[in-house]
Amino acid sequence: MSYKSILAIVGVDQDARDLQVAVELCRELDAHLSVVVAQLAPPPPMGDAGIIATVWLEQSRAEQDRLEADVVRLNMLLSQTGISFSAEGMFGPMANAGDDLGERARYSDLTIIGAALKFDPDLKSRAVDGCLFNSARPILLMPETGTASLRPKTVMIAWDSSLEAARAVGAALDLIIQAETVHVVLVDPKAATRENGEEPGADIARYLARYSDAVSIDRIPSMGRPVAEVLQQHAADISAGVVVMGAYGHSRIRERIFGGATRSMIEGVAVPVFMVH
To answer: Where's the UspA domain (predicted)?
Structure first.
């Protein structure tokens, strides 16, 4: 699919770099940029009910005022970029944030999660999980440094033959078709019929060869290292412009308790990561 509507989720008073990256990506594709400035409502404190209500309402009102002022500021900044855009605020309880952001993401082709959201871990967690699980759309996780493009020269696909990886490849075909090189990367692949086939990576490479003549298969031993570390290092070694991968092949709860490639890639983005559940 072509990316003609891109959503960027930002926090209040967030660093301008993430917004500039989103603007440049939209300019590159002549796409519309929708910006949601999200602010989680402060949780009600414990204590005397009357005092609590007054203090909490005053705090909530102050947070909403900050949010509204930031939306005005961003509209003024975006009006000078020359791209098609819209910007709105979202204020609400933490429990509903993921669903609300996921619902907004359904009406865009791609959602950008900027690096600066790491300074608000609760918002970032709900933005990532909400958009992955409630939008049926891909997300693009941005690193703190470097450039980003939706026309990358080198695309790296983290392949494990899962449904999630297949969905990611399907959603990223526009990136893959125009790339100069496409690396299908398998970490510790097992040659088994119900896993990666007798020749791991051959099936997906054969499929992608109908779209691109620059597909290669990289089978990499982990040597005991975490999968995410292996993927990040290989992405750096081949100068990947974007990493395409499926998200949460295991449950979110299991990944949070025991760790996993998805959670590690989300927490340590080194190059742009195009992710789909």
So the answer is: 153-277
